[in-house]
Write a structure and sequence with these properties.
Among the domains are: about 100 residues, Winged helix-like DNA-binding domain superfamily/Winged helix DNA-binding domain (Arc Repressor Mutant, subunit A), CATH 1.10.10; about 100 residues, Tetratricopeptide repeat domain (Serine Threonine Protein Phosphatase 5, Tetratricopeptide repeat), CATH 1.25.40. It has eleven helices and seven strands. The strands form two sheets. The chain has a four-stranded mixed sheet. A three-stranded antiparallel sheet has the order 4-6-5. A hairpin with a 3-residue loop joins strand 5 and strand 6. The protein is elongated, with a radius of gyration of 26 Å. The termini are far apart.
Length: about 290
């Protein structure tokens, strides 16, 4: 029987575990392990690793600090798990051991999400939705959350974009099936990260309309309008206003052209003017009665 698999968590606070048992690594060793886990499988140049991890040091000092950090990571994991996790290729490159039994949560996350979001959201199957929901549970936080060094930022943004896409696809999937609760759950997760995403607001409005919840459609439009006003001092996009107007009329069909969008907005303006006129007359009558 071979050694137990090492699992490396990069989403959220980085952690390493053997089976279900977390390893009590020092913070520096955990961060270095995360860095190596994000490197190509063939490893990373020592010169690049030293400059990225210790960019506040002269090159010679950075290389020495890298060597010390690698020794510490190797020693800690060997003492706690009996596994050699670091693989060096002379003085040129370094990476995680290709012989060790390793699994990394970001690899699983991308394997679940990537093939599904390569297709239109309208074509998702139940199995696709289950894959995305599984991927969402892996997202325990941003990639290597405590770290704000340059080496992690681009990859972090790419993973966050995938995560938001997965959430939006789930909103659309459950919305099309009139499952308002599930759509709202995934929509709230997406808007908790990116509250200005009008496409997510629109997909939630459509989901609530399909579930015949006009109260939630109204509330979602107001939530969208308010956050845009508070954060940007702006009103919702014409597409968002037109969708709201259609949904309040009971028409869920999207316009097929810019001309159709203009007609939707013009009709919404006429309806608002008509209602405003009714309200004005009602107030006038009340004024005469008082």
């Amino acid at each position: 029987m071979g050694p137990e698999r090492l699992t490396i968590q990069l989403l959220g606070t980085p952690r390493v575990a053997v089976g279900a048992r977390p390893l009590a690594l020092s913070p520096g060793a955990s961060l270095l392990c995360a860095y190596l886990a994000l490197a190509p499988r063939e490893g990373r140049s020592r010169a690049i690793a030293a400059s990225q991890l210790f960019d506040d040091c002269p090159e010679s000092t950075a290389r020495r600090r890298l060597s010390t950090a690698l020794w510490r990571l190797r020693t800690e994991v060997r003492a706690l798990a009996g596994v050699d996790i670091v693989e060096a290729h002379g003085n040129q490159s370094v990476g995680l051991s290709r012989d060790a039994a390793l699994s990394v949560d970001t690899d699983e996350f991308e394997a679940l999400v990537g093939p599904v979001v390569a297709q239109p959201a309208s074509e998702l199957s139940k199995a696709d939705a289950e894959r995305l929901a599984r991927a969402v549970t892996l997202h325990r936080g941003q990639l290597v959350e405590p770290c704000h060094d340059a080496w992690v930022l681009t990859e972090r943004q790419r993973i966050e974009d995938l995560y938001l896409t997965a959430l939006d696809y789930l909103v659309q999937y459950y919305g099309a099936r009139a499952e308002a609760g599930a759509a709202a759950k995934f929509g709230d997760l997406a808007l908790g990260l990116e509250p200005l995403r009008e496409d997510v607001h629109r997909h939630l409005m459509a989901a609530f309309a399909t579930a015949e919840r006009p109260d939630l459609v109204d509330a979602q439009f107001e939530r969208c309008r308010r956050v845009l006003l508070d954060e940007l001092g702006a009103e919702p996009m014409p597409e968002t206003v037109a969708l709201y107007a259609r949904l309040t009329r009971g028409d869920r069909h999207a316009p097929s052209s810019a001309d159709a969008l203009v007609k939707d907005l013009e009709q919404a303006r006429r309806e608002i003017s008509r209602l405003s006129s009714i309200v004005d007359r009602a107030l006038e009558r009340l004024g005469r009665m008082s």
